[in-house]
Amino acid sequence: MFGGNVLKRVLCCCSIAVCCCIVCVAVLYYPASVRQDHVPVAAPVSAAQPETNCLAQTTTTSPITTQPSTAVPATQPPSTVPPTTKAPDFSYSLSALQIVPTYTEKYTYEQMRADLQTLCSRYPDRLSLSVFGTSVDGRELYCVRLGSSAAQRSILVQSTIHGREYMNTMLTMKLLEYYLYYYDTGFYDGVRYADIFEDTAIYIVPMLNPDGASISQSGLNGLRSEALRQQVRQIYQQDTTIDQDEMSFSEYLRKWKSNANGVDLNRNFAKGFGVQSNHTAPGHEKYQGPQPESEPETQSIIGLVSSLPGLQGTLSFHSYGSMLYWECDQTGSYRTLCYNYVRLMRDLTGYRILGADGVPFMGSFADHVISRGIPNVTIETGNVNTPLPLSEFNRIFAETRQTIAAAAVYFASR
Ligand SMILES: [Zn+2]
Q1: How far apart are CA 399 and CA 321, in angstroms?
Q2: How far apart are alpha carbons 194 and 182 in whole angstroms?
């Protein structure tokens, strides 16, 4: 999809342009000028119970080491690294998973909340749900822990920091259901899921930007506040004037990535804030915000990251492009740790690894965690522009099915 001699614009979650006449098969790196959002460039129903029955605050804290920043060394060429060897996989049935629906393209915040409650009721010994913040439009931000509360290590999975990439919420919810269903019988690389998750707890934030997802799915009807609806109308008028954008209002909303304030949350973090910024006002994408960490969703996930016990690494789900980002300004053995992490994800998903191309950070979630010594891989799911159509889902599920378990095993074996 990226071949050809003409420069093509391709939106990864964001919009990436790749292309080039490349003489030989080589690694693709995005030029800084076209890099958009991610790490430097770089998966039997019971009745729901009252929400408070499952709630448990994640209050444990653990020190997080800050990694010193130095010059960015040359990127290792991913194509030269041989695949890692893994034990045989096991057979599973997607149709056996009957809680999280995958027949609807617009998997909503409300559906996610109901499914979290159902999963919590079904698997009370393996799951714990917490609220770690509130969105601009007043929606609770949910984090679910898969595995033991006594685990010394943890992995954080976050998705849908960009509104229109909401299929990743359905994906991470389905992955959660999958791991729960096969908890005692499934395995990764010969290790039972139960053993993996008793050792390393998985914290999943399936929808970090619920307001943005709701706007993309339902337009202005996705907002609860009339004041915010008016604000979004004004943002459209101003943004389309500045950019001379001819996008209709309904299409503008469908393509919404930002939060309800028109701030791109994946540019709102302090590390690299303002770098590459050419948007000075709120919009449906790319505006970094009035100051670093200005948005409640950003502040909440930062707090969550700081509170997780023994956080080893993170996975960030975006769309689209079937690509992986991993690079920030890592050096030395930390860089090797991060690179081997993305190699593992490449071997599992078959997605391409992309590098930073000299622009190490841009205010993203990935920049935040990586600069604090926590490796992150950003997984760009899907092969077509966002919002992804439902036809993409089953393949993406198959491609990403083992990523979370693999991340846990990887860091446990360090
Ligand atoms: Zn994105």
Answers
A1: 13
A2: 9
Other beta carbons within 10 Å of 347? 17
113 CA to middle of ligand 1, Å? 22
CA of 163 to the centre of ligand 1 (A): 8
As a 3-state breakdown, the chain gives helix, strand, coil percent values, each rounded to 5, of 35, 15, 50
At 384-397, the pLDDT tens digits run 999 999 999 999 99
SS (H, E, C) 168-180: HHHHHHHHHHHHH
Amino acid (1-letter code) at residue 356? A
User: What CA–CA distance (Å, rounded) separates 395 from 326?
Assistant: 23
pLDDT number for residue 275: 87
CA 162 to ligand 1 center in whole angstroms = 5
What CA dihedral angle connects 307, 311, 317 and 322, to 10 degrees? 170
Instruction: Give per-residue pLDDT as tens, 194-212.
Output: 999 999 999 999 999 999 9
In CATH, the number for domain 51-213+295-412 is 3.40.630.10
Residue with tokens 């770690």: 132
Q: Is residue 136 over pLDDT 60?
A: yes
Q: How far is the CA of 168 from the centre of ligand 1 (A)?
A: 10
